[in-house]
Amino acid sequence: MKLRSLAVVIFRQLRRPTRPRRINLLLKGAAFLLFLWVFDLFLYSQIHSVPRPPKDLDGPFSTGCQDPKKAAASHPRENATFVMLARNSEIEHARQTIQNIEAQFNRWFNYPVVFLNNEEWSPEFIRVLNKTVSGKAIFDVIPQADWDYPDWINKDQARASIAKQEKLGVWNGGKESYHHMCRFYSGSFYNLAALSQFKYYWRLEPGVSYTCAITYDPFLAMSTHNKTYGFTTALWEEPNTCPSLFRAVDDFRIANLIPSTPSWNSMIVVPTWDPFPIRWFKGRYLQSPHHSSSGSKWNLCHYWSNFEIADLDFFRSEAYQSLFKHLDRKGGFYTERWGDAPVHSLAVHLLLPPEKLHHFSDFGYFHEPFWQCPGNAPGKQMRESEVLGKWEDGERNDLTQETEGAIGCRCQCFASNPKLRRNNRGICLGIMQASQAFHRPSWWEIWRGKWPYSINIPG
Ligand SMILES: Nc1nc2c(ncn2[C@@H]2O[C@H](COP(=O)(O)OP(=O)(O)OP(=O)(O)O)[C@@H](O)[C@H]2O)c(=O)[nH]1
Ligand SMILES: [Mg+2]
């Protein structure tokens, strides 16, 4: 009742023709607040902007086919290996992956494969996979300490939290081993004795497939182009797997005085409509999911780490390891279900300049349920090659059409539409490449759904 009468009094005061100054004052106040809001949004957008570099900082390593034997003979192997984490029960899928990568690439380059397991390998797995790999196969068992809860975590609480995640339907959140796997791939795989001799690694998984021939050495290309981290696919993370991950990473950034670079900014939602006090309140007090303590919000984009070609020295660096230790102490690998994919992605965008990242847009790659697959480069399919296999007109209907601007070598894509390069919209790919991209779509193209930046996504 009191409130109502107060409202009536204010309304009457405002309407009194004898008091126009009050209205003026109110209007001025509102205009001032509006100005502050717009100014704050403008400032926020400027601080978090991703400026256009003077030129494209990344591009395909190769277009069409080369003679892989010549490529292999022209250079010694890099200090590099494939890595596959698998269970004994995944023997058939593991064999398929290896058979596929051998056929598409490794039969010419003979890189070793390190198989990792948290249990002893079955003799059958060793026998079958040994036969499938053309290079050396190494079967390693992960030390127990690297596949377990850290000492300082309360195991009962962690298990209760995992059970709760199961109930809440968090993707893979109810599987204890999955949490160990994510922590292992985030924090310790690069320190394994079996990998200590290698600089580069290429991550494989049971059941993935490569759908184009890879006729050059990607490890060598990473080295000659001075690249650190290579990816194929970028997607949104499942929001309920990692509500506090971004805050934890950003807290680390601030504590270590790491400036927010264009690469980092590309992980942040811009523009925001929340004015500063609301952002601050959400970040600091409400601890809203995916917000930093200062209220900026992660766009949830990350590279899909089931494919990675990367420089292990990056993960072994002081900076990455202290980031991992900081995250590990927060407990989110168990209290939530932080994945190694967003951990790696936030880390590379925090710690690396944009030119160190590479999109393997020339690779056809399939991991259930998503794929990317380039079209075939016109006139560059080496139809006469004995090494790759000759063919006559009309013989290879299984190959994807050669299309203008396409870069693939003998790709076999699944899409009915030959122009489709992936079965997801590539929005995160575009967003995460922004700091590398001089060529960008206009606002009109974005509005019409053409998100991806034009570098690396030809055709
Ligand atoms: N040895 C071992 N490997 C595991 C275990 N859990 C997962 N992995 C491996 O870790 C990698 C990722 O696991 P996946 O189950 O494929 O997880 P994902 O790719 O994130 O998710 P989906 O494939 O969509 O289920 C694969 O190489 C698995 O073989 C485990 O308990 N033991
Ligand atoms: Mg998988």
Describe this structure in words.
- The chain has helices at residues 2-15, 20-47, 68-73, 91-109, 123-132, 155-168, 176-187, 218-224, 245-255, 262-265, 276-285, 312-316, 318-330, 332-335, 340-351, 427-432, 443-447; strands at 80-85, 113-117, 137-141, 200-204, 209-210, 229-231, 234-236, 301-303, 308-311, 357-359, 365-367, 370-372.
- It is an alpha/beta fold.
- The protein has a domain at 68-359: Alpha-Beta Complex (Spore Coat Polysaccharide Biosynthesis Protein SpsA, Chain A).
- The strands form three sheets. A seven-stranded mixed sheet has the order 3-2-1-4-9-6-10. A three-stranded antiparallel sheet has the order 5-11-12.
- Helix 4 runs parallel beside helix 5 (123-132), helix 9 packs across helix 13 and helix 9 packs parallel to helix 15.
- The longest helix has 28 residues, at 20-47.
- The radius of gyration is 26 Å and the shape is globular.
- The mean pLDDT is 93.
- The structure holds guanosine-5'-triphosphate (GTP) and magnesium ion.
- Residues 205, 306, 367 line the site of magnesium ion (MG).
- Residues 205, 306, 367 line the site of magnesium ion.
- The active site is at residue 308.
- GO terms for molecular function: alpha-1,2-mannosyltransferase activity.
- This is Glycolipid 2-alpha-mannosyltransferase 1.
- One of its GO terms (cellular component) is membrane.
